[in-house]
Every structure is written in structure tokens, then in C-alpha cells.
# Entry
Amino acid sequence: MSRATLAKDPREVASMFDTVARRYDLTNDVMSLWQVRMWRRATRAAVAARPGTRVLDLAAGTGASSVGYADDGAEVIACDFSSGMVAEGQARHPEIHFVAGDAMALPFADASFDVVTISYGLRNVQDTLAALSEMRRVTRPGGRVVIAEFSTPVRRPLREAYRFYLDSVLPAAGRVLTPNAEAYSYLGESILAWPDQQSLAALMQQAGWREVAYQNLSGGIVAVHRATRPAA
# Structure
């Protein structure tokens, strides 16, 4: 079965997600003990879409988050670089416009969106800084970015338990629940290699975002980062 390495070659990552598209949302529910639904609500609140808000949902997968933004009245474009995810999402949610695209070279004009958001996909991009800069480019001056991503638990006992889960439990569960268990071995490895909350905030600053802040969820297992594109 296809899996990606931590070099995160875009073709490898896209191919890996193609193989898990059909059962991706169910697997996420089970493997997060349904916490992902609470995390999605918190991200939706941070996006704060209103009627007419232009939202770009990156790494949208099958559109689980995009639907919430559309329900809030936003004009949503769901973008993912896995053609399998795009096809599955469009079939499930024909009311939402899906686009295949690479976060490092977004197929959108400058200042096209009021809010750009990405959930659990930034760490799969080969060049994080390039993606953050592209997200800034397509956001209007004064617009916002919202990033939900796995992060580093604040307290040591939870960090140790979480590392055990990622190293041992997650790959074992993947063998039972998915047709591509190797994808979930990659998932655990990519989370453990990902920068912590402060380091990601610093990268966002480096990419030109301002008013950077974050909120820890589930003790820091997930963090929701927010920032604004300067008006000038």
C-alpha cells in the first residue's frame, strides 16, 4: 500500500491520501475517540464565517469542515491536492465547489479570500513556510488565517501517553480500520516530527502574518492558530 515519507514528496502524500479517501472521516472519528468533532467545532468558531464571507478550506479532504462554513453562509471553496479526496468530497457534497490544488502554489488570485483555513493538513506540506506565504498571498489585506493542527501536549504525563498512542496504538488501529495501515504509521510519525505551538507561531510571523495567537484543545493535542494579514 502507498505511504509517504517524512520528506513529504507531494506525489507520495497525494497518492497515500487517495487510498484512504473513502473511509477517512470514519477512521478519524474512531481514532480520535470522536474528539475530532469537538476540534472541528472550535475551528469553525475561530473561522467565524458569516453570509458572504469568502472562505478557502485547504486540505479539505472530503469536505467535513467545508460543510460547516457553508452552513454559516460562507462562499466556500474546498481545495485538496489528493484527487481521490476531491472526488469523494464532490460526490458527497455536490453543493460545495471542490478544486484540486497544491498549498505551495495555490491556483487562486491574490487577495481572493476573507479567511483561509487548513485543518490537519499543513504538516503534510513539503515546505511549511512556502504554504504559509501562499495562504497569505490569497488572503485579502485585513483577512485572517485559521490553522488547526496536531501539536504538543502541555503536560508531561499527557505528552508521554500521547507519544505511546502515536507510536503503538495508532498503527495497530490503522491495520484494523483502514485499507492502508501504512498511512497511519506516517500520520503518527508526522505528528511527532511537527513543530510545537510556539514554533509554528514563529513560522507564521516569518511568513508575514500578524496578531498570531493560538488556543490549545484537549490539553494541546491539537492547537488552533489564528492570525491576520496586515492591511498595509
